[in-house]
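> example.struct
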């Protein structure tokens, strides 16, 4: 079959074909670009396989189109950019594997041998760039048929394909998830699923970084629950994230069972995907840099999806059955928050602000729900805004997604109440600006005012001031905070200031005032 639908209109393809002919080699477009052409999806990544030296062909093409070429000799590949498109060249090759490694022994090969080593039939299709059959589809394994039927299948027997490179088991699940649409669901063929179940232990030879790379791509799909259901069904999930697998199942005592937390977690994850997409379209979400500057979010937040995935991770450890009351998971948010750094470290994931963000959302995810059930006070809302900071919108999105039930009336009622909480938060936020909250009283000011060296008393006084502001006892101003601190310091700790509120020493008209920039109003440019 020759392709005539305009898939190869980009001038780079003719240029590659002509240069290959001059070098007396054959060149083909292969892999994802070919697959995406048939799916009608735009692609800016083009893979060229050459029966010869991919690097030599890339250098010759780059010279003709006056482009810079990047050469990766260790991998035998080269890459150039052509009008915003990345074009990668590699020599056709055949591979063999040692059982204890996913690094192959690579030898030069033919196009057919190169296609045979590909992971799935839908990724093994190629377009010829030869003048005599330009655009001919080379599809020895029926990839176009599998693509039409929504099938993920390996060119070789799945046991060999997955044994050679176990990462392909995760890639199969990722492709099935990413390519599925409401109109057509992609499925992995049964013998491939069975091979995964039998070979799940082979994941042990993979680096955690490569596994997480696949997980992140799964999480960024339109319906990530599908991927995690497949990983659980095949036994792959327990090999690297057993904490999530432990959520599966329902325990029953005295005829009472609890919610199936694995299914619930995946529903929350999908809800987060849908809610975030809608919020991005309505320009309701911001991302913040390290200095707190906001920009409108335009792409999904991967770490919000990780928070959704791990939000109930502490439930198995906190599960208890109380006669007459039923099942409880008291404190599971605290347990889960403690587990987040351990999970990130085990998976070789970043332990920086991204981990802390996930940990914060896991720890706080019940707080807005508690406000739904209780009387919403300014104090409770103020404390939630203070604790969540700039992540409050993501936290609220996660908590809204966490409202799931088989009873639609219950969901509708909880979501209605949840909207009331959001309205109350908007009122308090507009009044108090708590996202950028800073204590009006600094440690330096306390030390200078009371003549103290660094000690626990300084932290105690600052904490008292913070609580008084968050509880609404005093306004959020330096003047109110200063007066309150002076009083509680004397009443509870027996401390008397060295200066009065006007900056004068008790026994001197000209007493020096404390450094004002360390005790400025929160609305002052010098506020600490």
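> example.seq
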């Amino acid at each position: 079959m020759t392709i005539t639908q305009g898939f190869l209109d980009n001038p780079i393809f003719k240029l590659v074909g002509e240069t290959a002919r001059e070098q007396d080699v054959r060149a083909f477009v292969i892999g994802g670009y070919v697959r995406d052409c048939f799916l009608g999806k735009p692609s800016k990544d083009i893979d060229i396989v050459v029966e010869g030296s991919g690097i030599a062909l890339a250098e010759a093409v780059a010279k003709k189109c006056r482009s810079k070429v990047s050469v990766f000799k260790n991998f035998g590949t080269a890459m150039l950019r052509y009008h915003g498109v990345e074009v990668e060249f590699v020599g056709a090759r055949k591979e063999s594997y040692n059982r204890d490694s996913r690094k192959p022994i690579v030898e030069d090969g033919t196009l057919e041998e190169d296609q045979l080593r590909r992971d799935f039939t839908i990724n093994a299709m190629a377009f010829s760039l030869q003048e005599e059959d330009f655009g001919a589809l080379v599809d020895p394994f029926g990839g176009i048929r599998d693509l039409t039927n929504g099938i993920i299948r390996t060119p070789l027997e799945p046991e060999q394909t997955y044994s050679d490179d176990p990462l392909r088991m995760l890639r199969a699940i990722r492709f099935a998830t990413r390519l599925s649409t409401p109109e057509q669901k992609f499925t992995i063929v049964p013998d491939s699923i069975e091979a995964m179940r039998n070979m799940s232990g082979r994941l042990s030879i993979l680096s955690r970084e490569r596994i997480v790379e696949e997980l992140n791509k799964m999480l960024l799909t339109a319906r990530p629950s599908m991927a995690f259901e497949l990983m659980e069904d095949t036994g792959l999930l327990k090999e690297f994230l057993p904490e999530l697998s432990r959520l599966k199942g329902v325990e029953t005592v005295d005829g009472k069972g609890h919610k199936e937390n694995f299914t619930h977690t995946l529903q929350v994850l999908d809800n987060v995907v849908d809610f975030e997409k809608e919020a991005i379209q309505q320009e309701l979400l911001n991302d913040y840099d390290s200095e707190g500057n906001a920009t409108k979010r335009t792409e999904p937040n991967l770490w919000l999806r990780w928070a959704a995935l791990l939000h109930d991770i502490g439930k198995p450890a906190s599960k208890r059955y109380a006669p007459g009351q039923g099942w409880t998971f008291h404190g599971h948010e605290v347990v889960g928050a403690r587990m987040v750094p351990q999970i990130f470290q085990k998976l070789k994931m970043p332990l920086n602000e991204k981990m802390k963000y996930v940990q914060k959302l896991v720890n706080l995810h019940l707080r807005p729900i508690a406000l739904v059930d209780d009387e919403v006070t300014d104090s409770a809302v103020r404390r939630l805004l203070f604790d969540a900071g700039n992540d409050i919108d993501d936290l609220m999105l996660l908590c809204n997604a966490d409202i799931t039930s088989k009873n639609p009336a219950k969901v509708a009622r909880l979501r209605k109440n949840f909207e009331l909480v959001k309205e109350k938060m908007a009122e308090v936020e507009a009044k108090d600006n708590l996202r950028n909250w800073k204590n009006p009283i600094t440690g330096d000011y306390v030390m200078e005012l009371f003549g103290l060296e660094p000690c626990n008393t300084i932290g105690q006084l600052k904490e008292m001031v913070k609580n008084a502001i968050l509880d609404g006892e005093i306004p959020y101003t330096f003047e109110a905070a200063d007066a309150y601190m002076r009083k509680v310091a004397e009443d509870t700790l027996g401390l008397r200031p060295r200066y009065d509120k006007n900056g004068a020493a008790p026994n001197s008209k000209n007493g020096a005032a404390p450094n004002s920039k360390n005790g400025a109003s929160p609305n002052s440019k010098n506020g600490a």
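> remarks
The CA atoms of residues 167 and 211 lie 7 Å apart.
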